[in-house]
Amino acid sequence: MRKLLPILLLAAVTPGFAGKRRERLAVPVWVEGERLEAGTLGVRLGGQAARVEAVRGPEHDLLLLVVLDLSGDVSLAETARDALARQVHQLPAHTWVSLMRAHEGLSVILDPTADRSAFEQAVRAAPPGRHAGFLESAPTVMDLADAILRQSGVRVAVLFVTDSDVRRYREDFANPVINASDPRDLSRHFPEALVQEKIRKLDRLMAHSEAPLFVVHLDYRSDRLNEAYQAGLTQLAATTGGASEFCRSQGEIAEAIGRALARIASHYSVVVAVPERTPKFASLDLRAPGRTLTYRPQVPAEER
Questions:
Q1: At 213, phi and psi to the nearest 5?
Q2: In the list 35, 78, 226, 269, which could disulfide-bond 221, CB 3.0-4.6 Å?
Q3: Which residue ranges form the domains of the chain, and what is each CATH number?
Q4: CA-to-CA distance for 143 and 21, rounded, in angstroms?
Q5: Global pTM?
Q6: Geometric angle at alpha carbon 66, from 64 and 69, rounded to 5°
Q7: What would the pLDDT profile of 157-197 be if each residue is shown by its tens digit?
Q8: CA atoms of 163 and 242, how far apart (whole Å)
Q9: Could you give phi then psi for residue 249, rounded to 5 degrees?
């Protein structure tokens, strides 16, 4: 893990090769039952038998990229910062944590560190933003996480802590009514169409990711436009094999962050050799006797 920071810097500037077939693929997996071992795991990728190259479990090194996207209620943001500051101390000692901020462009607040006090100080001091930043910054963070995952040989995950309102983006996602007097004007009936199209585009990008994305949203909103947006956040996390949490009250925030951190810390990273003639997106089937496995059903066999 001492070489992790140079790898992080290299990953940030190393371009990918679009359309190139991956030689190997890291898949996040959760296990109920006995510990997962490479020798007991059967894998089929796109209908073909695939070889397991490595299984990295909860006892192995983990790099967690925490991204703050806080631009709303100050009290909710303070509760989230406090929960992160306290709960990061409960993570295993072999977990390194980085802190980023998704406002006015993605910026790094704290480089990867195992120093829990340094993270606590950084997260408590992180300033809020004026605009929501998840949709713009998530693809960059996921590309970075994937590059680290491939180059470092450690488990990697991304956690977004956000209170984003779809109306708080610089881009206007409120599909305007073009002709209020025309009952056939579709914009009258589908005000969420723009944000759904944005989510579809991001989902196509996220489908190429190997690292899992987790989202904790601090402020669930029930209006039609934000419900479409929040459903999109859930979809994006699920596409990567991660998960989302939505808080309907301030009292739920600490528990939601705790559940996300626990799930991140408990995940396995199963490295699979990609057989030749595997389709661009391949079905994945994992089997291990005596264990119940949770994983994403489709994985990318090619670079984006």
A1: -105, 130
A2: 226
A3: 4-19+60-270 (3.40.50.410)
A4: 17
A5: 0.90
A6: 160
A7: 999 999 999 999 988 887 554 444 545 544 444 678 889 99
A8: 18
A9: -155, 160
